[in-house]
Amino acid sequence: MTPQRGFTLIEVMVALAIVAVTLAAGTRAAGSLIDNAERFDQVLAAHWCADNQLTNLRLARVLPGIGEADFSCDQLGRTYAGKVTTRPMANPNLRQVDASISDAAGHPLLTLTTVLARY
User: Fold this and answer.
1) pLDDT one-digit tens code per residue, 108-118
2) Which residues of 72-105 are buried (b: 16+ CB within 10 A; e: fewer)?
3) Is the pLDDT of residue 42 over 70?
4) Nearest to 49 by CA among 28, 78, 22
5) pLDDT tens across 64-88, in order?
6) CB-neighbour burial class of residue 31 (10 A; exposed 0-12, middle 13-18, buried 19+)
7) 68 contact partners, CB below 8 Å, separation of at least 6
């Protein structure tokens, strides 16, 4: 009788288990990359919204009043909710202005801060 060549059932099962674990890890990594790309997209659009709002305040050339104001912004087909918070500084000719942006679910995405001066 000649010896038979090939793999045993155990060897095949171990190889299949290794392939399954590798594919699961690859799928998870791909999912993480997609989530990170989506997050980057949202933060970039939110940054544009906040920067536009702060630029509008700078271009108005008026020292903003102290307090909070809400605004909304449309970027890349999405609507973002924003809040501008103006605080006094030690110098009465300066104001600290924060523009905070949230997504549609109300989760904060980013806050940009600047200092505006009386012209």
Assistant:
1) 999 999 999 98
2) ebebeeeebbbbbebeeeeeeeebebbbbbbbee
3) yes
4) 78
5) 999 999 999 999 888 999 999 999 9
6) exposed
7) 83, 84, 85, 86
Whether the CB-CB separation of 95 and 66 falls below 8 Å is answered with yes
SS3 35: helix
* pLDDT value of position 99: 97
Closest CA to 87 of 48, 60, 114: 114
Q: How far separated are the first and last CA of the chain, in Å rounded?
A: 101
Domains and CATH numbers, the chain: 9-117 (3.30.1300.30)
Q: Which residues partner with 72 through β-bridges?
A: 81
For position 13, what pLDDT does the model report?
93
Residues, the chain: 119
Task: Please name the residue ranges forming H helices in 1-119.
Answer: 9-60
